[in-house]
UniProtKB/TrEMBL annotation:
Protein EC: 2.7.4.9
Ligand binding (ATP): 10-17
GO cellular component: cytoplasm
Gene3D superfamilies: P-loop containing nucleotide triphosphate hydrolases (3.40.50.300)
The Thymidylate kinase-like domain, residue ranges: 8-199
Family: Belongs to the thymidylate kinase family.
InterPro entries hit by this protein: P-loop_NTPase (IPR027417), Thymidylate_kin-like_dom (IPR039430), Thymidylate_kinase (IPR018094)
Record's keyword terms, sorted: ATP-binding, Kinase, Nucleotide biosynthesis, Nucleotide-binding, Transferase
Protein name (database record): Thymidylate kinase
Gene: tmk
Superkingdom in the source lineage: Bacteria
Functional summary from the UniProt entry: Phosphorylation of dTMP to form dTDP in both de novo and salvage pathways of dTTP synthesis.
Length: 236
């Protein structure tokens, strides 16, 4: 039986890494075969180029074509495309912290007109899924944290090794851009049936990580990605 590819996605500071790892551990504790991938892979060949871009080495957001940026992000994923496919054929669960889905949003947000963005999205789809044969995701869990709160949370993470110990990258430092990214995430969660949004903030306060995790598990059971008989208490 073919495995399932689960993507945890969202804006910067939304808790993707925490929730991806909680989900991975939950599946392991329930004796389900699982593999975890974290994108970009900053230690890899293409991931190092991504890090240099995010540090601003090649210019600001409006100085590098989104096509070129999207290509490098996609090439990073392409290095493990066959490995992901192999795990899926074995029936494994795949948990991805970001995926091709981020390319549509983060690079698409740099394109002003909808017609041009539609053209770009088709190009990214063909690049990621057809040319590089990246397996199509089964479900995308979108962690919605308003960009203003995400901005504060990003800064609280402290210095990042891939940015030579700077706190924020050029995506995280730009509030106007963050707002555009959020808009596209919300649009994608409405128009794509396999995108499910989780509101991670209630009354202006971020929900605790276990409450968000419980919502993710509930969605995965509802959508029959995992069996309803898996034991939620094992994740604690």
């Amino acid at each position: 039986m073919k495995g399932k590819l689960i993507v945890i996605d969202g804006g910067d500071g939304s808790g993707k890494t925490v929730q991806s790892l909680l989900l991975r551990d939950y599946l392991k504790k329930n004796h389900l075969p699982v593999s975890y991938f974290d994108f970009p892979q900053y230690d890899g060949f293409y991931g190092q180029i991504v890090a240099r871009f995010l540090s601003g080495e090649f210019g600001g957001l409006d100085q590098v074509s989104p096509y070129l940026t999207a290509l490098v992000f996609a090439l990073d994923r392409a290095t493990v495309s066959k490995k992901i496919s192999k795990h899926l054929k074995k029936g494994n669960y795949i948990v991805c912290n970001r995926y091709a889905t981020s390319n549509f949003v983060y690079q698409g947000a740099k394109i002003l007109h909808q017609q041009d963005r539609d053209k770009f999205n088709k190009w990214v789809f063909d690049l990621e899924y057809k040319i590089q044969k990246l397996p199509k995701e089964d479900i995308v869990i979108y962690l919605f944290v308003p960009w203003q709160i995400g901005s504060v949370l990003s800064k609280q993470k402290g210095k990042k090794k891939y940015l030579s110990d700077k706190s924020n990258d050029i995506h995280e430092d730009n509030g106007v851009y963050r707002k555009k990214v959020e808009k596209l995430y919300l649009e994608n969660s409405k128009k794509n049936k396999h995108w499910l949004k989780i509101n991670c903030v209630r009354n202006g306060n971020l929900l605790n990580k276990q409450a968000i995790h419980a919502q993710i598990i509930a969605i995965l059971k509802q959508k029959k990605i995992i069996s309803k008989y898996t034991d939620l208490t094992k994740s604690n």
